[in-house]
Specification:
Blueprint lengths: L5 H4 L2 H17 L4 H9 L18 H14 L1 H21 L7 H9 L3 E4 L15 E4 L5 E10 L7 E8 L7 E8 L4 E3 L14 E10 L4 E5 L7 H35 L13 H15 L1 H14 L7 H27 L9 H9 L9 H13 L4
Parallel strand pairs: 1-4
Antiparallel strand pairs: 2-3, 3-7, 4-5, 5-8, 6-7
């Protein structure tokens, strides 16, 4: 068996090219179109697609390693690409469980289609378990969707939007409907992404005005509420693990920059490099101790998803937990890196200043801290009421 080589899929020169663009993308608040073009040309959109369909056939664990690597160069690019990879990952998870309804996603990814993730809605803390978007069934088995999605990464460039909505009129209603709609006049992408960090994701608001999903792109109907259905598990597992990977990559880059800075700065007081200062050494050690725990956790859980391991009622707690720990640890590491970097890191143009802003976004992705704690508490203590 050939050892997995991340550089074979993200070569060093491509990574440095992407890194060189990141500051400008953040400053100008634009989508990294050149990054997407280069990654598409490198076959990155198909890394989770089986080799027999033209993809790289990587495992989820291997994709998580690549996303960590990409995030060290450009966190916003990695986070945006994550949302496309979520759908190809869900297709992989479902396909390995004998459900082939997302094969068109795999084939589309290889052909250059860009799939966006249209689940989040303002004020909807049910997330996957409910929707305020109206899913209206049509006589031919298709659906139209009317509603408003927020945080739609890849806003200016996606070609297919995977989304959910609530069908309240069918005989078996209510049913959550998962489907894919193309970019048409029935879909309006607002140019409203002006955030503190992760600016390159361009995760804009999406308005749906009767957006049509053909019958062949209606992939699942499930009852609202907590549900172990394969599409719910697939979305939750791939989403949480790849998010954890991106923020772990941010932590790694902050650690690397802190080390470089400590070695490059010289104390006027002692004449020695800051890397000799005991307080700086303690901070860097704290950062490394915290970071080192993350990649093995992500790898272990991703391997379990790949292998079909059964964690039963603890699966959602484990997945939300690893995402929560990755985000909070990454924030801790970046905080320490800022102190190692000194006052210059406080400027918005400094890489650590950008990482400081980027890492904040992690707190707002599902599962947020409140949801993660509620999920874990329910897994261990049972539900309330």
């Amino acid at each position: 068996m050939t050892a997995f080589d991340p550089a074979a899929f993200l070569p060093d020169d491509l990574l440095e090219t992407i890194r060189s663009r990141a500051a400008g993308v953040d400053r100008d608040n634009v989508f990294p179109v050149d990054d997407l073009a280069d990654l598409t040309a490198a076959g990155y959109l198909g890394i989770l697609v089986p080799a027999e369909l033209g993809g790289a056939g990587l495992s989820l664990a291997e994709a998580a390693v690549l996303q960590q690597r990409l995030a060290t160069a450009a966190p916003a690019t990695a986070l945006a690409i994550n949302m496309h990879l979520v759908w190809t990952g869900v297709a992989k998870v479902m396909g390995e469980r004998g459900i082939d309804t997302l094969r068109f996603v795999q084939e589309g990814a290889v052909a250059g289609e860009v799939f966006a993730f249209g689940i989040s809605e303002a004020g909807n803390d049910l997330v996957l378990f409910g929707s305020d978007t109206v899913a209206e069934p049509q006589p031919d088995g298709s659906y139209t969707f009317t509603g408003r999605k927020i945080f739609t990464s890849l806003g200016p460039v996606w070609t297919q939007l995977g989304l959910h909505g609530l069908d309240t009129t069918s005989p078996d209603a209510p049913q959550l409907v998962y489907a894919f709609v193309p970019r048409t006049d029935a879909v309006i992408t607002r140019d409203d992404w002006d955030t503190v960090g992760m600016r390159g994701t361009q995760s804009r608001t999406t308005e749906l005005h009767g957006a049509h999903a053909p019958a062949g792109r209606v992939v699942r109907r499930v009852a609202p509420g907590p549900n172990p259905d394969p599409i719910v598990f697939g979305i939750f597992s791939v989403f949480e693990l790849l998010l954890a990977a991106v923020y772990t990559g941010v932590a790694r880059r902050a650690l690397d920059v802190a080390v470089e800075t400590a070695r490059a700065r010289t104390s006027k007081k002692t004449g020695a490099p800051y890397s000799h200062d005991p307080d700086i050494r303690w901070r860097v050690a704290e950062m490394a101790l915290a970071y080192d725990a993350l990649p093995p956790q992500i790898e272990a859980l991703a391997h379990d998803v790949d292998a079909g391991t059964d964690h039963g009622g603890l699966w959602f707690a484990k997945l939300s937990g690893v995402k929560h720990r990755a985000v909070t640890t990454a924030k801790q590491v970046v905080d320490e890196a800022m102190l190692v970097g000194g006052g210059s890191s406080y400027f918005s143009g400094h890489e650590l200043g950008r990482l400081y802003r980027d890492v904040l976004a992690g707190l707002f992705h599902p599962s947020d801290p409140e949801s993660a704690h509620a999920t874990v508490a329910s897994a261990w203590l049972g539900s309330v009421g």
